[in-house]
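Sharing a chain and its predicted structure for anyone who wants a worked example. Both blocks are below, sequence first, tokens second.
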Amino acid sequence: MTSLVLLGTAACHLCEQAEDLLNACMLNDTKLTIETIDIAEQDLWQDKYAVRIPVILHPESQHELSWPFDIDQLQVFIKKISIVDG
């Protein structure tokens, strides 16, 4: 199972686009799970990600994919981290 975190915030149209791309990837990869975190909930997240959101984070490896990205780049990212998950 590959778990990813979508770091974003409410009313962010780029975050919504990133979520749509992730959902498209989930249709093709049933071993993919997504958690959405609003960076406004913690100062640390705001400090680290405020100008970079949306960001896809793989918690186990700490690899990140920052916006802008497209479906092809997202699929390559997922493939790379899937190797880490074994």
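Comments welcome. The chain has a mean pLDDT of 92.
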